[in-house]
Amino acid sequence: MEAIDRKEIIENILYLIDAEDAPALKSIIIDSHPADLADILRDLDDEERAYLFSLMTAETASEVMTELDEVTREDIVSDLETERLSEIVDEMDSDDAADVVAELPQEIKAEVLANIEPQDRAEVERLLVHEEDSAGGIMALEYIAVYEDQTVDDAIREIRRRADEIDEVFYIYALDRGGRLVGVVPLKSLLLRNPRRLIRDVMFRDVISVSTEMDQEQVANIVRKYNLSAVPVVDKNQRLVGRITIDDIIDVLHEEANEDIQRMAGISDEEVLQETSAVRISRNRLPWLLISFFGELGSALVLSRFDATLEEIIISAFFIPVIMATGGNAGIQSSTIVVRSLAMNDTGATRLWNRVLRELRVATLNGLIIGALLFTVIFFWKHQTAFGFVSGLAIILVMINSAAFGAIVPFVLHKLKVDPAIATGPFITTANDIFGLLIYLGMTSFYMAHGR
């Protein structure tokens, strides 16, 4: 749905809602993709959203609800009758149903579980025992599995039998008679095999699986690394208990990326998706601003110690913003790469050292280029050859210093069990300002005392 079309559709929907033209609205609902309907609902106010959602069948409403952000979904669910909510949950896949039920107040959760089909209730309850951000928390219980001593034809019949229950089939999982995962057969490979062959003769035995306790981010890294469409989930005894499909992995990557970006900015998901009290927002952001505030007092102390230098050669003050901003950006660039590596589990002693050395080499190369440019500016603008050389050398050292901090600080914070995504920024900027000023003004003072 393009931006112009979406605007026009929303205007039409608002007109139809105002006119209470239910048949026309139902026609739009039928012709629209659930993801587009979710976008439309986000643009409506509470009453308009409730009315449009009430016109959806339970099946359509369940598909739309899985596409909504958490805050909008909570707003819709809070206005639903328990019977209607139960019908919607009953239509969902087990993992999506568990996500919705987990967010409900305890008394409503109990009512919804009591109203849905017994088999669906049992599946949701099995998923609710797992941590929300673990493999067990995001897995679905719908998968195709057969025993290794069954035939290819048996597996194909099992796919047909459960066609209405499972939307996407990527792999067929092979189990021993104890329910343990022993092999996997891609759907394409299954269809090309002789129907009378045994599964054990056509399956891949080197199965990539994840445990129920594994963090969802690690699961996403495994799926990305091995280019999987789905990954099986096993318990501690290697029994198959579920699968995680690529659409869930995309959601995890999106969620983790948003979370990291928001943490680096010191904001929460609630701030992005809805209005939150100023006190709560302040509580999230203030600690890191205070770290920067007290750190910058150190920068003020450094400047006060060099007041004579600034008075005697005022030109040195002109380039303080240039030195600080360039060094700060170099530090942030290095820290961003390292924080991303930590998020992708790309760590280790050798990798750490190689990462630091690479960031130092990059900072040195960039520093030489920026230093040469600064020297050129000072030489042609102020006709100060010696001062231009000192300033160019200073900016090189400042960039190397900032890059070193940017590469090392996230690893240190990670070892101290502090989230580097949210805590690295204040440390990098403060360290750059203090040490950058010391380097620049120290070299300038030395030049004034001995080089003029």
Kindly describe this structure:
The protein has 452 residues and is mainly alpha-helical. It folds into three domains: 3-131, MgtE N-terminal domain-like (MgtE N-terminal fold); 145-254, CBS-domain, CATH 3.10.580; 277-450, Tetracycline Repressor, domain 2. The protein has 24 helices and six strands. The chain has a three-stranded mixed sheet. Strands 4-5-6 form a three-stranded mixed sheet. Strand 2 and strand 3 (181-186) form a beta hairpin. Helix 5 crosses helix 7 (82-91), helix 21 (320-343) packs antiparallel against helix 24 and helix 23 (385-415) runs antiparallel to helix 24. The radius of gyration is 30 Å and the shape is extended. Mean pLDDT is 82; it is low at 270-276.
Describe this structure in a few short sentences.
With 452 residues, the chain is mainly alpha-helical.
> What portion of residues belong to β-strands?
5-15%
Compressed to H and E, one letter per element, the order equals HHHHHHHHHHHEHEEHHEHEEHHHHHHHHH
Number of alpha- plus pi-helical segments: 24
Mean pLDDT equals 82
Give me the CATH architecture of the largest domain, please. Orthogonal Bundle
Give the N-terminus to C-terminus distance in angstroms: 67 Å
**Which stretches are poorly predicted, pLDDT < 50 over at least 5 residues?**
270-276
Return the structural class: mainly alpha
The CATH class of the largest domain, by name, is: Mainly Alpha
Widest sheet: strand order? 1-2-3
What is the number of beta strands?
A: 6
Largest sheet: 3 strands, mixed
Shape: extended
User: How many structural units, i.e. domains?
Assistant: 3
Radius of gyration from CA coordinates: 30 Å
CATH superfamily assignment of the largest domain?
Answer: SLC41 divalent cation transporters, integral membrane domain
Roughly what percent helix?
A: over 70%
CATH topology of the largest domain: Tetracycline Repressor, domain 2
